[in-house]
Amino acid sequence: MIDDDLEIPLRCLFCKVPLQAAEDSSFHAGDLIRCLSCGEDSEYESVLEVAKEEAQDNVQRLLDKEMSKLAKKLFK
């Protein structure tokens, strides 16, 4: 069974370290998020897009793995 607790951190576009912000922070389209590790600014929408792509890749990999398991069980 697939674990539905998949978390994808928002990462700096330059050094790939997970971005951190204050708990009450809110970001919107066009905002820049400063990385505390490298000091570079990453555009919020770009960071979200990269995280979405990573999530899709992870879900596809999990689905492929589950389908392979099911196929093995069906064709024993």
Mean pLDDT: 92
- List the helices and strands in order: EEH
Q: Give the oligomeric state.
A: single chain
Low-pLDDT sequence parts? none
Tell me about this structure.
The protein has 76 residues and is mainly α. 41% of the residues lie in helices and 8% in strands. It has a two-stranded antiparallel sheet with strand order 1-2. The mean pLDDT is 92.
Summarize the structure.
The chain contains one helix and two strands, in the order ββα. With about 80 residues, the protein is mostly helical. Strand 1 (about 30-35) and strand 2 (about 40-45) form a beta hairpin.
Primary descriptors:
single chain; mainly alpha; two-stranded antiparallel sheet; 41% helix; elongated
